[in-house]
Amino acid sequence: MKTCFFVGFIFLSFITTAQNIKVNKESIQIKGEAAEGFEIELDGTLHDVEAQFLKFLKPVGKPKKTTEGYVITPSVIGEKNYASPIYAVVRDKGSGSAWIGVLPSEWPSTVEDVKKDVEKLVHDFGASFYRDKVQQQIDESNRALQAVQKQQQRLVGQNKDLGNKLEQNKQEKLKLDKQIENNSLEFESLTKKIEKNKKDQDSVANAGEQIKRVIEMQKLKQSNIN
Question: E strands of the chain, at which residues?
Answer without folding.
Answer: 24-30, 33-41, 64-65, 70-72, 75-77, 80-82, 86-92, 96-102
